[in-house]
Every structure is written in C-alpha cells, then in structure tokens.
Amino acid sequence: MPPSEPVQPVHLSGSAYKRDPYPLYARLREEGPIHRVLFPSGVTAWLVTGHAAAQSTLADPRLGKNHARGNDRWRARASIMPEPQHSRLQVHLLHQDPPKHTAMRRLITDAFAPRRVEELRPRFQEMADALVDGMPAGADTDAVDLVQCFAARFPFQVLAEVIGLPPHLAARFRREWGGVVAPVGPDDPRRPAYEELLRGLEGYIADVVADRREHPGDGLLGRLVAARDAGELSQEELDSMIFQLLVAGQEPVTNQITTALVSLFRHPEAMERLRSEPGLMPAAVEELMRLDSAFELTTWRFLAEDAELHGTRVPAGDSVIVSLCAANRDPGRFPDPDTLDLDRQQGPHLGFGHGIHFCPGAALARIELQVAIGTLIRRLPGLRLAVPEEELPWIPAVLGRGTSELPVTFGTVDRGVCPRNKRG
C-alpha cells in the first residue's frame, strides 16, 4: 500500500493555480484518486480527485465532519483555520455528524424546499430587475464592476427574503464579514483585523438573535431562535447556523455568478444562444456549474481510525478533502469535460456535493443563478469583459472559486421587463 506521508505534498497555492486549477487537477486525476496536498496556510490534507472516488468519499460513512475527530497534527495548525477554534461559530451543519447533523438539518429544510423557493421566483426576478434598473443607462465607454453592482447584492437580497432577515438588520450586514472563512494565521500581520471582523460578526449575530426573539415573525431565523429557547439547540449551535446561513447562504452564489459569466464570455456563441433560447437556462446553469464550480473543494472530513481510502493508507484524524471541480471535469464521467456544452446529457454534477451533506440550499441557488444570469444577458446588450481575462482578480479563498471583481461594458440597458414581472 502506498505510504501515507509522501515526501513532497502537492502545493495548492499561487495566483496561477487560483486562476486556473484545472491543469493541475487533470494531472492529479491521471496519477491516482488521492494525493497529499499542502495549502498556503501550511495545513496538509488528503485530496480526492476523480468523479467516482469523489462520490464514494462523500458518501463514505467512515468519514466524519466533526472537528473533534482531528488528530494532533491537524490541531497543531487548526488555529489558522477559518473560524478559529475559540470562535462560537464552529458547530454548524458542515461540522456535524449524525444524529446531531440530522436534527439540525431538519430545522432548515422547509425554508429551502423546492416548491417554496420556486413560488418566490417572481419576487427574485423583481429584485434582479431592480438592480439592473439601477445600473448606468449605457456603459459602452465606462467599465462597471458587476460584482459590486449585482453579483454581491442579489444573492444577499434573496437570502434575506428567504430566511426572514428584516430590512433594518439586512442593511447592517457587512459583506467583509464573509472574510472570516479565509485562513489567517496567528503570526499573520492581518490577524488583528481578522479577529476584529470575527468579533463584529459575532456581535451582529447576537443582535439578530435578540431581534428575532422579540419579533419572531414566521421566518427561518425566528424558528431557529425558538428552537434554541425550546432546548433543541445550544447557543453556539444557533449562532453557528445563523453564521452558515449568512455566509455560506449567499457568498458561493455570488462567486458562481462570476465563474458562469466568465465561462460565457469565453463562449460568446453560448451566451447568444441563451439570449435567443431562454428555455435552455436551467440546463445551462447545471453545465456552467459543472464546468467551473464556486464550490471548488469540500470542507474537512476525518477517519476515526487508520484505514485505506482509494488504495492509500490514511491515518486517523488526518483531514480529507474532495475536489468537486476536479470531479466535475473527469473525462471518465463527462466526455470532453473542458468544453461548455449546453446540450450535455451525462447526468448530474457534484457542484452541490453528495450524500448527507448535499447543499440544503441547492434548489434556491439554482433559481437564483437562472434568474441572475438570465436577467443580465437579456437586459445588458453587448455584455462583455472590460479588461483582458488574465487581469481578473480571483478570490484567494482556499475552498471557493470566483472573481472579486468583474469589470464589464455593455450597451444601453434594456428597460423593458418580461410582462409577467410588471407590477400594477
């Protein structure tokens, strides 16, 4: 059996890697299904690549998500991980195993049920149209940052509507609080600013809890606070679930909008086809997610005891991560995987994960992406990048993928909207 500690782990770092990790993933897939890797923070992990190996790993009952399973080597670096261990935001769904995971997930599933979020589609369309209405009338000469104007705003507006975050609290949310999921080591000069962000987010969550306790309403946030008061959740679990909703519930959609648009800018014929055949949008969103997913890597999993994983001995408590992006471009599962094919028939991708930790907000995210991309390409004629693609700033996040800015130009904004979306 291959040794568990290769001398030189593969480095997952650098601007070239963040801009285009797919050549590296292709090489790793060819070499085998599992590899020792090193992240910029100094944390090592076992990375699973190909589609079959990824799917089986995500459903492997031997692998747990609770950080208590991590061994001493992993814990030695845990203080630089997202949400330092002293944070009370550590015990959300992504870090839980059954039966706790099952009970916590049950509290949120109704809010994200496919039928419920589909009923909200007209409201989401109104939000998207309002944001486009606020854009410059014509931007042929001046670049517009689509992240700032749309991609970072639309998902949060949708999320606030779905979970019952009232306007006075939504107005106070700072997008930079999402930065607490980025690894900033204890010796990093940015650490004080990082911890200040963390304290600010914790204070905001405390205010949300207090507000929803006093004015519960019928939204998800009010129901979670009621579950805490009924003894179904600890205070740390409540805070963590609200954190997960506020950050994981919207930032990946922001990133997925950017990766999807970059792919369409590379394939203008596909963008034009979507303009003329809007009924293709649901299938197009699935293909765009497969091609370049905002969920690049999963969070950590751990074995309770030494075991074989895809032919390699993995020590108990070592972290195991699955590359969803590598799995989604496995030629053994998706023929010609580096090509954007709006007519692809090879079945579902792993962009939302698999198994018991499959993204509970998948139905909502799909509708958001359909509405967002459809609205932008329909209402912004001549939409195109305003800078060379190699100048796009890709986010440095370890697990996610997207651009922090997306400068574009377009012609005169189409002020007409679909008749079914008009009011009055």
TrEMBL record:
<comment type="similarity">
    <text>Belongs to the cytochrome P450 family.</text>
</comment>
<dbReference type="InterPro" id="IPR017972">
    <property type="entry name" value="Cyt_P450_CS"/>
</dbReference>
<protein>
    <submittedName>
        <fullName>Cytochrome P450</fullName>
    </submittedName>
</protein>
<dbReference type="GO" id="GO:0005506">
    <property type="term" value="F:iron ion binding"/>
</dbReference>
<dbReference type="InterPro" id="IPR036396">
    <property type="entry name" value="Cyt_P450_sf"/>
</dbReference>
<dbReference type="InterPro" id="IPR002397">
    <property type="entry name" value="Cyt_P450_B"/>
</dbReference>
<keyword id="KW-0349">Heme</keyword>
<dbReference type="InterPro" id="IPR001128">
    <property type="entry name" value="Cyt_P450"/>
</dbReference>
<dbReference type="GO" id="GO:0020037">
    <property type="term" value="F:heme binding"/>
</dbReference>
<keyword id="KW-0503">Monooxygenase</keyword>
<dbReference type="GO" id="GO:0004497">
    <property type="term" value="F:monooxygenase activity"/>
</dbReference>
<keyword id="KW-0560">Oxidoreductase</keyword>
<dbReference type="GO" id="GO:0016705">
    <property type="term" value="F:oxidoreductase activity, acting on paired donors, with incorporation or reduction of molecular oxygen"/>
</dbReference>
<keyword id="KW-0479">Metal-binding</keyword>
<keyword id="KW-0408">Iron</keyword>
<dbReference type="Pfam" id="PF00067">
    <property type="entry name" value="p450"/>
</dbReference>
